[in-house]
Amino acid sequence: MIKLICPKCMKPVPVADDFAGREVTCPACAATFDAPARYDPAVIPEAPPAPAAPPVPPPVPATVPGPAALGMAPPAPPPGYTPPAPPVPTPAATPAVEGYTRSCGVTISPRVVAWLPAILLTVVFVCTFFSWVGAYFGGSPAYWQSPWRALFGSPGSNPVYVQYMPGDGAWFKSVPSDAGLMLGFFFFLFVAIVFAWADRGMGSIDPRRIPPLAKLWPWRKTVVAAAAGLALLFVLIQLASGFGLERAIRKSVAESPEIVKAREEAAGAPSKETAVDNRVAAEISRFNLERTWWQDVAVYSLVGAVLAVILSIVLDRRGSKPPPRLVLHY
Q1: How far is 58 from 52, CA to CA, in rounded Å?
Q2: Whose CA, among 51, 103, 271, 305, lies 20 to 30 Å from 113?
Q3: Strand (E) positions, 73-182?
Q4: pLDDT tens-digit profile of 135-152?
Q5: Spatial distance between the Cα atoms of 210 and 20, rounded to a whole number of angstroms
Q6: DSSP-derived secondary structure for 286-326
Q7: Model confidence at 91, in pLDDT bands (50, 70, 90)?
Q8: Residue 175 DSSP SS3
Q9: pTM of full prediction above 0.90
Q10: CA 66 → CA 83, 169, 307, distances in Å?
């Protein structure tokens, strides 16, 4: 057991030996700080005495004494002679990778990486309140659907632009719900957000004192990674199968009386069936179905959150080693 002093409230904090060199939380003020690494002193054996240096022989006098030894003045330099400047010592060159002359790099900060999952997951949650798919007229949405609307099967519409859309719009009342996938997405997204922000501090509440969280707290980052990964899986399956608004529009076109009659007439003729498929695709394209950049931001943020929490786990296992650094040689 290690006894430390909280740098914020100055109260003693008992820390188990397993938490040496890792981030700990003060039970009094919930402040987080790094516990010192375990010190294992090593006994260095005493070095043997150095052998005595051999005696230095006296200098041998020069066979030919110079002018100074004979009491004579040194000869004067010739007119216009300038003695050369002493050489300037050059500093040792920095070792570089062979074939490259410059390099630049960035250090991966564990503290910055630890905040990324909570921030990115919050961005995903904010994006769920905006439209992810829509049918557009002249760049303006006539019909649209967000994850929350997909959960309840109730897309939004704008009467100003609905009148210009193809068809009578009867399909709008039979848009199916995507509750099966959206419930799983929202559930795992909430779990990941709660544990991600709890890892970054819960004020005066110590999660280790809450019985339901006491056993999960050492695995909180693993829970965030698993929950965020499952949320990503559910949303990718939803995007692959299409939202209820997209499926309802495609179904209304495929089951229209004109298309049904054309398929019956083209039965058994591959060329005619291909022509009908092209007609169906052309009718669906009139709705201008598009997915918004809110969906792209949400999906990329969710992928980034999964990668960030995995990287945070890897950095925690490095212990007292210096943070890794990415270097580019050019």
Answers
A1: 18
A2: 103
A3: 103-107, 133-137, 140-145, 156-157
A4: 998 888 999 999 999 998
A5: 23
A6: TT-EEE-HHHHHHHHHHHHHHHHHHHHHHHHTTTTSPPPEE
A7: very low
A8: coil
A9: no
A10: 20, 116, 78
Task: End-to-end CA distance of the chain: give it in Å, rounded.
Answer: 49
β-pairing, 133-137 vs 289-291, is: antiparallel
User: Is residue 124 a contact partner of residue 298, using CB atoms and an 8 Å limit?
Assistant: yes
Using CA atoms, how far residue 229 sits from 116, 160, 253, in Å, is: 15, 40, 35
pLDDT band at 25 (very low <50, low <70, confident <90, very high): confident
Reading the block at residue 141, the tokens are 């949405």
Could you tell me what percent of the chain has a pLDDT over 90?
30
Query: Comparing C-alpha atoms, which of 319, 267, 79, 299 is closest to residue 189?
Result: 299
63 φ/ψ angles, rounded to the nearest 5 degrees: -70, -35
Contacts of 37 (CB under 8 A, 6+ apart): 20, 21, 319, 320
